[in-house]
Design goal:
Rossmann fold; eleven-stranded mixed β-sheet; 31% helix; 17% strand; PPase_methylesterase_euk; Protein phosphatase methylesterase 1
């Protein structure tokens, strides 16, 4: 393991606030403040809200942070601002149901959607990382709406992060393989197409953070392609070499998390004080979606303490799939069809395969050294600027092609 990785892990562990609760069964941050989807199949449901409101300037976010070790910690007594909710960032909230078939289990997928405003406008697909949620993209979506006002944005919750896939009518699936997660992404896109009555999928740009980056990279490598309208894809702060190297430390990191919180405000405060997130505004939008409230089962003694907020997703349960997520990712990233961009925070670096690919000009690279792992939350405006520039460069609908020779001849013009 490199000295850089060791130093980063050591500083991360030493900076974590002392746990106030027992964490004998550590679990990760996960999906949403929304009520969890029903464990029985149902019809599609939607909640509509006004379009996203204007975004604050990036100076209000975490761009003033110097580094992961230089961030100023707020005092524990400082009041935490109230959480914000999804209508500030997306047009609608949808639950899309997939009936069971011989080849696919039943599913209920949870997404947030702002549809594209024209038939040729691109649709940006946002896939979060393990233990995170669709609302981790809230501020990024808000900034993207300013830079790409006609583009659509779809942020999804992965299975057991707000969406649910059933092995049987009453048993949620525990399959977290890359293949299963990729199948979920493709299903969500086609269900959204049906819901919106699109003749075909709009031009697509896939954006994935961490595990989400591995999922979208896998999808782009499939043959034949399941997404013929794909323009390109963007991976946020994950590199195969670094990810594989860090897996041995994941259990230690999880063990240093509190297992529960007495309130959502306490959870928000912990994420800021532990420097997991460096942007308080993004923490207010995303952290509530990572938790569920569970009251003690007095008959069996199961569950948490009454009124405690606990992690929605048990990240420890996904351990058998961790290496499956990232092994071979660099090769698939370089070989996938479509334009490519990699956005890294200062704590990550290219592995050998990506370094060679970058020198050969196979993908665009951005590094934001002031951000942490949740780069899209820490510096949403800078991330949005890079994404918008990438989309504009690769949006074929914006190209104006010269007339064909046959058309000029038909018009009686000399060639």
């Amino acid at each position: 393991m490199s000295d850089l990785a060791k130093t980063f892990i050591k500083s991360k562990l030493s900076s974590l606030p002392e746990n106030t609760t027992n964490n004998s069964n550590p679990t990760p941050p996960s999906s949403s403040s929304k009520p969890p989807p029903s464990t029985t199949n149902g019809t599609n449901t939607t909640t509509k809200r006004p379009p996203p409101s204007p975004s604050p300037s990036d100076s209000d976010s975490s761009t003033s942070s110097i580094s992961s070790t230089g961030t100023i910690l707020p005092p524990p007594s400082q009041a935490t601002p109230p959480p914000t909710t999804w209508p500030s960032y997306f047009t609608s909230e949808l639950y899309l149901t997939r009936p069971a078939t011989p080849n696919q289990p039943a599913a209920k997928y949870h997404i947030y959607l702002t549809p594209p405003q024209t038939p040729t406008s691109p649709l940006l697909i946002l896939h979060h990382g393990a233990g995170s949620s669709a609302l981790s993209f809230s501020l990024l979506a808000q900034s993207l709406h300013q830079h790409l006002p006609t583009a659509g944005i779809l942020a999804l919750d992965a299975r057991n992060h707000g969406s649910v896939v059933w092995d049987s009518p009453s048993t949620p699936s525990t399959d977290f393989s890359l293949e299963a997660l990729s199948d979920d992404l493709i299903s969500i896109l086609h269900l959204t197409q049906q819901y919106e009555s699109w003749v075909s999928l709009p031009p697509l740009v896939l954006i994935g953070h961490s595990l989400g980056g591995a999922v979208i990279t896998h999808v782009t490598s499939l043959t034949p392609t399941p997404l013929p309208s794909l323009l390109g894809y963007i991976v946020l702060d994950v590199v195969e070499g670094s990810a594989i190297e860090a897996l041995s430390h994941m259990q230690t990191l999880l063990a240093h998390r509190p297992s529960s919180f007495s309130s959502v405000d306490e959870a928000i405060d912990w994420h800021i004080r532990s420097r997991t997130l460096r942007n308080p505004e993004s923490a207010r939008a995303s952290v509530p979606s990572l938790l569920v409230i569970r009251k003690k089962d007095w008959n069996t003694g199961a569950g948490g303490q009454p009124g405690n907020w606990e992690w929605r997703t048990d990240l420890g349960a996904t351990k058998p799939y961790w290496e499956n997520w990232f092994r071979g990712m660099s090769g698939k990233f370089l070989a996938g069809r479509g334009a490519k961009m990699l956005i890294l925070a200062g704590t990550d670096r290219l592995d050998k395969e990506l370094m060679i690919g970058q020198m050969q000009g196979k993908f665009q690279l951005h590094v934001f050294p002031t951000a942490g792992h949740f780069v899209h939350e820490d510096v949403p405006e800078k991330t949005a600027e890079a994404v918008a520039e990438f989309v504009k460069r690769n949006d074929r609908s914006a190209l104006v092609l010269p007339p064909k020779v046959s058309e000029l001849l038909a018009q009686g013009k000399k060639v």
